């Protein structure tokens, strides 16, 4: 049990360790200052436990917390931190005992921040240095043994052991060295008079003072102290305080009074005239402050920037007219003013966001810094409204820019997003940055045809290759994803592949006829055209193109009855007693064209007895125009022309033979027919008679049926003249009842037929024929 418990707790400790790492990171590297560029500081990937292979993909990089100099960088292949910029401890941290660079290792995807610190160790690269090479002292010969003269101190940029450790004074007859520490634990030295001076013995003397540090190797600096021996004695000035403290807001303008230091001198006259000055001023301080030599007023003389230096410490010397010095320390604390607007840094940005990314996708990382302190550096970040993006606060000063909705490149292809950062200073400062985001295309739109369907009208007998129509589809996607290519969908028209009828230009969508069309063959057909884009995978849509072929008058009327060969056996009998207006026969013709092109008209162009017969202009019915008279020739011949109404019109002619007779036996021609035997002659008559009669029947009864069943155009005299069968179904919209009533032989003949029918469909089709066979018997006798 105890063992198990141990395992658990160490697991927890381990997890805690990892989390601790993720959130704060406490890896510290100690390096000496002034390492060469490229020197390895340590392996951060190993120390944090990162997957080496993913460093590059996760765009690992080092940021300093305040985004100033990039002192080190991470090698993406090895995970090592290497020195990037000179790291000068003195420049970075001056006299601070611990010099720490706070750095962050930033990883994206997901955003991760590992803090680490670089502790910069001092290297003894600075020698102790006195303010001047030569110091001048004027000392009265009356000065007693043990009198002290402050020499001041040497400075060493280094710290600790590497800073000034001690002083030695060159061997001499009069002075010894006394080393003291002041409040700031800095060592300064005094000359102590060991043996009285004698102006008469020597008027001046030179001493060499050496300061040394504790570094290895040791460094040292020297100053020559030139002592002039004077005749009288004096008091040194005394500061009212050994340490002065002042506080000053940054950005205080020049001449602002910081503090007034005062020192008093017990002497009178010239000896009490005190001169103040800064001792051992760094450039930094001398550029910022000045001290009035008479009044001791310390004033601002340059830029005071909290972000550069937040406190100053300096030595002030008070010197009386006879050159006796005393020292005080002045510490000035600078207070922060909200003078730095936040700075927005774009740490990473996906410039091309695919439009299909799901809402919540991180497209960028920003980092916000404010160089001020406390509240002045508390920053809030916001985004303009009305864009499908938001800022999600991440670790510390980092924000993720994420999408909030589905993007659509076809609606908005790019965004300019303005990020505003405001600090909490008073008054607050803000700054903004605009980032440009482009939405990258995804092939998410199929081509869409501009019309739901297309119709093309073409007259028959067109030229192959002629243009029928053009289709057009649009695809709003980008480049090849929006490039439309047209093609025919495979299919058949009348059993032949559709490609043998039409072709489509892949680029333009123009549809061409591949062959000449024949209206009499078919009047319309459909093709399906597909529009496909060039995306991968491609998207497509298709549309129906209806091709309508219109008629050209390219068919002459065709005469069905009488047969155009003009066979004289086709002879109609006309009873002698026929009155004016009797129906005698009928010319039946059809025209394969349609509409006007098939609207037929009938004309008698030649006749044996002009005026005896007339023909119905559109019915083709031949009627007697007057009663038959005895003088009329028995044998009548009509030549009938049938014309269609096309432009130009086409025509056909036929001959019609008519016999005015009540009895076939009277027919002279029939006798001429060379039949040897009477019986067979008789049979011939009978046949002829039957043929005549039957032909007439056929004409009226069978042929219409044939016409419809055989899909031949209907004789258009049955149609209203303006009728045009454009929908191609062959359906007529009127009902015709045709009553055929005719007589042969006598007006009162029982040879009668009635053909009521519904013309278009001919579904019901009946007729009643009562043929007087007796008539035939009577005429020809029983065979
Ligand atoms: C974004 O800014 C650029 C440059 O200022 C400009 O050309 C572009 O039109 C802007 N785009 C939008 C969507 O406002
Ligand atoms: C087209 O769409 C695909 C995804 O469907 C995308 O990968 C490609 O980049 C797009 N092409 C262009 C030119 O935008
Ligand atoms: C043509 O389009 C219809 C509906 O738009 C679709 O159902 C059909 O699959 C498409 N045909 C082809 C061959 O793409």
Automatic annotation (TrEMBL):
List the Gene Ontology MF annotations in alphabetical order.
Answer: calcium ion binding
Cite the Cadherin domain residue spans from the record.
23-130, 131-239, 240-344, 345-449, 450-559, 574-670
The protein in question is named Cadherin domain-containing protein
Bilayer topology term = Single-pass type I membrane protein
Give the protein's biological function. Answer: Potential calcium-dependent cell-adhesion protein. May be involved in the establishment and maintenance of specific neuronal connections in the brain.
The organism's superkingdom is given as Eukaryota
One GO cellular component, as annotated = plasma membrane
Origin species: Neogobius melanostomus (round goby)
What are the transmembrane regions? 682-703
Query: Which UniProt keywords are listed?
Result: Calcium, Cell adhesion, Cell membrane, Glycoprotein, Membrane, Repeat, Signal, Transmembrane, Transmembrane helix
Specify where it is mainly localized.
membrane
Pfam families according to UniProt: Cadherin, Cadherin_2, Cadherin_C_2
Q: What is the lineage of its organism?
A: Eukaryota, Metazoa, Chordata, Craniata, Vertebrata
The subcellular location is:
Cell membrane
SUPFAM superfamilies membership? Cadherin-like
InterPro entries associated with the record: Cadherin-like_dom, Cadherin-like_sf, Cadherin_C, Cadherin_CS, Cadherin_N, Protocadherin/Cadherin-CA
Tell me a GO biological process for this protein.
homophilic cell adhesion via plasma membrane adhesion molecules
Signal peptide location in the record? 1-25
């Amino acid at each position: 049990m105890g063992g198990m418990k141990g395992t658990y707790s160490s697991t927890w400790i381990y997890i805690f360790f990892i989390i601790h790492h993720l959130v704060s990171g406490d890896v510290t590297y100690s390096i000496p200052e002034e390492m060469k560029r490229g020197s390895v500081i340590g392996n951060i990937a190993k120390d944090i436990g990162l997957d080496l292979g993913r460093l590059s993909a996760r765009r690992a990089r080092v940021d300093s917390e305040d985004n100033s100099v990039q002192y080190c960088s991470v090698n993406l292949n090895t995970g090592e931190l290497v020195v990037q910029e000179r790291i000068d401890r003195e420049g970075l941290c001056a006299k601070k005992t611990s010099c720490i660079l706070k750095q962050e290792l930033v990883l994206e995807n997901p955003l991760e921040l590992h803090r680490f610190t670089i502790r910069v160790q001092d290297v003894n690269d600075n020698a102790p240095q006195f303010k001047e090479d030569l110091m001048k002292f004027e000392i009265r010969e009356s000065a007693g043994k043990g009198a002290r003269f402050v020499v001041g101190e040497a400075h060493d940029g280094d710290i600790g052991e590497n800073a000034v450790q001690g002083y030695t004074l060159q061997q001499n007859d009069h002075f010894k060295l006394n080393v003291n520490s002041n409040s700031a634990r800095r060592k300064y030295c005094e000359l102590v008079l060991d043996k009285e001076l004698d102006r008469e013995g020597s008027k001046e003397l030179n001493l060499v003072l050496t300061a040394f540090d504790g570094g290895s190797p040791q460094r040292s600096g020297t100053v020559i102290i030139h002592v002039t021996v004077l005749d009288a004695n004096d008091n040194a000035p005394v500061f009212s305080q050994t340490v002065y403290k002042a506080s000053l807001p940054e950005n205080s303008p020049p001449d602002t009074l910081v503090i007034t230091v005062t020192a008093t001198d017990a002497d009178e006259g010239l000896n009490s005239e005190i001169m103040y000055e800064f001792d051992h001023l760094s450039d930094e301080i001398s550029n910022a402050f000045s001290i009035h030599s008479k009044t001791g007023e310390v004033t601002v003389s340059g830029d005071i920037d909290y972000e550069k230096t937040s406190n100053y410490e300096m030595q002030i010397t008070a010197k009386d007219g006879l050159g006796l010095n005393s020292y005080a320390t002045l510490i000035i604390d600078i207070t922060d003013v909200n003078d730095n607007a936040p700075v927005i840094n774009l740490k990473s940005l996906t410039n091309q966001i695919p439009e299909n990314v799901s809402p919540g996708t991180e497209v960028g990382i920003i980092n916000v810094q404010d160089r001020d302190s406390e509240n002045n550096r508390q920053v809030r970040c916001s985004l303009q409204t009305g864009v499908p993006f938001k800022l999600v606060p991440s670790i510390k000063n980092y924000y993720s820019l994420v999408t909030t909705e589905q993007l659509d490149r076809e609606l908005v292809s790019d965004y300019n997003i303005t990020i505003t950062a405001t600090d909490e200073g008073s008054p607050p400062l803000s700054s903004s940055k605009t980032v440009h985001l482009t939405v990258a295309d995804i092939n998410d739109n199929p081509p869409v045809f501009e019309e739901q369907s297309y119709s093309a009208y073409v007259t028959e007998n067109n030229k192959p290759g002629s243009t029928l129509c053009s289709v057009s589809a649009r695809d709003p996607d980008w480049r090849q994803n929006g490039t439309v290519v047209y093609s025919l969908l495979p299919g058949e028209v009348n059993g032949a592949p559709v490609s043998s009828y039409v072709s489509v230009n892949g680029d333009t969508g123009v549809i061409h006829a591949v062959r000449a069309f024949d209206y009499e063959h078919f009047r319309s057909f459909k093709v399906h055209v597909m529009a496909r884009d060039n995306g991968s995978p491609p998207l497509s849509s298709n549309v129906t193109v209806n091709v309508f072929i219109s008629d050209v008058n390219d068919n002459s009327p065709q005469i069905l009855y009488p047969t155009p060969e003009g066979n004289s056996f086709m002879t109609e009998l006309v009873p002698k007693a026929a009155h004016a207006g009797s129906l005698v026969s009928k010319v039946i013709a059809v025209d394969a064209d349609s509409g006007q092109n098939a609207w037929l008209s009938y004309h008698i162009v030649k006749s044996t007895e002009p005026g005896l017969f007339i023909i119905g202009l559109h019915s083709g019915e031949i009627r007697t125009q007057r009663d038959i008279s005895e003088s009329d020739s028995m044998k009548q011949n009509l030549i009938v022309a049938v014309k269609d109404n096309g432009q130009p019109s086409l025509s056909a002619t036929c001959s019609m033979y008519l016999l005015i007779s009540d009895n076939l036996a009277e027919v002279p021609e029939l006798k001429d027919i060379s039949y040897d035997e009477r019986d067979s002659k008789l049979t011939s008559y009978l046949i002829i008679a039957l043929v005549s009669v039957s032909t007439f029947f056929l004409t009226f009864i069978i042929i219409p049926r044939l016409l419809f069943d055989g899909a031949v155009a209907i004789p258009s005299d049955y149609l209203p003249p303006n009728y045009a069968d454009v929908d191609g179904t062959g359906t007529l919209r009127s009902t015709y009842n045709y009553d055929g009533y005719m007589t042969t032989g006598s007006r009162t003949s029982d040879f009668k037929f009635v053909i009521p029918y519904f013309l278009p469909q001919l579904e019901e089709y009946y007729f009643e024929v009562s043929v007087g066979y007796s008539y035939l018997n009577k005429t020809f006798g029983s065979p």
